[in-house]
Design brief:
Layout: H1 16-23, E1 33-39, H2 45-58, E2 61-67, H3 81-91, E3 99-102, H4 108-121, E4 129-135, H5 139-149, E5 154-160, H6 174-200
Parallel strand pairs: 1-2, 1-4, 2-3, 4-5
Helix pairs in contact: 1-6, 2-3, 4-5, 5-6
Length: 201
């Protein structure tokens, strides 16, 4: 289902099939990358970090960039998601020298805005390959926003499953239905924002 032609007005009442087609997407495969970007997100953090650690230990990624400030859904308002993720990585034997930290962002748009600025400041934009690591339901929006900032960067994706918000089971629980329908509405919002900014440039 194309984002530009989707009937967003009826998204809350769309069929399970239509919502799944809108929200979920296939991973973009690459063999190895210089950096794995892990996006913060309240209760999703452990699942995403465990996948990043797995990829690091296999040599699939060389460094792990954790992205997340005090997000809107962060219950601990004093500690950034990036700091929480950094501590988790250190406890799992990831060297501090291989951890990059972006701790200003409050949402997906800012995740990539500030990540781009961070990598640019460290001269890590050119000739850098990246793997995006986030939950499967969040990946389409992550790709859309990533491509807006990183226009010429080679990248791949690894979608993380949590057993509650995945393509094959989100409709089985109130938690899953709430999160996936909310993501569908956020996709509409992000598409409108990024499309408007592209036109205004």
């Amino acid at each position: 289902m194309e984002l530009a032609t989707s009937n967003y007005m009826d998204i809350l009442f769309s069929s399970k099939k239509n919502i799944s087609e809108l929200v979920f997407c296939d991973d973009i495969k690459i063999i190895k990358a210089n950096i794995g970007i892990v996006l913060g997100g309240a209760m999703m953090i452990p699942y995403r970090l465990d996948k990043a650690i797995e990829l690091y230990n296999k040599g699939t990624i060389k460094k792990i960039l954790v992205s997340g400030g005090v997000g809107y859904l962060n219950l601990n308002r004093k500690t950034t998601e990036a700091e929480i993720m950094k501590k988790y990585l250190l406890k799992n034997n990831i060297p501090l020298s291989d951890i990059l930290i972006e701790d200003k962002s409050r949402n997906t748009y800012e995740n990539f805005l500030y990540t781009y600025k961070l990598l640019l400041s460290k001269n890590l934009i050119n000739n850098t390959s990246i793997i995006l690591i986030t939950s499967s339901f969040h990946m389409r929006r992550a790709i859309m926003t990533f491509k807006y900032f990183f226009k010429n960067t080679i990248f791949g994706t690894i979608s993380v499953l949590d057993g509650k918000t995945d393509k094959n089971n989100w409709f089985k629980s109130l938690y899953g239905r709430k999160n996936i329908r909310q993501e569908a509405l956020l996709l509409k919002h992000y598409f409108n924002i990024l499309n408007k900014e592209s036109i205004d440039k």
